[in-house]
Amino acid sequence: MPEFVATRRIGDATVTVISDGTLEWRPRFAITEAERRRAMPDAAADGTVRLGLNAVHVRIRDASIMIDPGLDDPSSAWQRAFAQKWPGVARSPGLAAALERIGERPESVSHVVITHAHADHFAGVAFERNGSLAARFPRARHLIGLADWEGHPARADAESDHAARLGLIDDLGLLDPVEGAREVVPGVRLVPTPGESPGHLAVHVQTGGREFYYLGDLFRHPCEVEHLDWAPPNRDAVALEASRDRIIAEVAGRPALLVFTHAQFPAWGRIVRTASGGQRWEPA
Ligand SMILES: [Zn+2]
Q: pTM (2 decimals)?
């Protein structure tokens, strides 16, 4: 079995990247064929690239923080339905197995951060038990950008993951929609980074002179670090580019350790300046 758990000590925090698997993605950027080939040498002939899918757990003092709990369990009915929509998904042993491996109990998770309301980032907040859904992290505050919750059209469809899974968390009184920046616990803050979705959040951990960022879908592939204006057609490209500019101003050329959800496991990286005045992703 390929490795799917990678832990590093960052200041006072223990940060673990958990791979939920990989999935196929066919970017639809408005670019030429030559640009596409140069920017995505990892792409198949039809333009498909294989992306990672990485959740992160942060243990800092007495806080246990789960960021983007990903997909439901590999053996779940949810996964069978998801595989119909995303045929290229390959699963790891999953989040529950990873938490057991690092000695973290779901009941002890104090906070769940959902960077944005796309199912591959949040479906794992719930799991199937005796034919119905239960909260995986029954004692955690679940933080999500207000604009990804309030008035979201998917909530009107009871069958949607949004309504069924985030709705369950809300019904249990565990959902905490966040407007603007927010400190989760001392040393951990949420950074509004709209674009991929209106309420998209990044997570910044600053401890003992070290820094870590979980960037969610601020970037999906390293080529977007070099081309800040590349975005899928159904995203808010102006907001996305502004969010990318803002985060790059904070991290580029600095030793901050970064992870974006769909980087290749183990996903650790930095953004470095290039001689031409741009920037690129570098595994770290
Ligand atoms: Zn995503």
A: 0.97
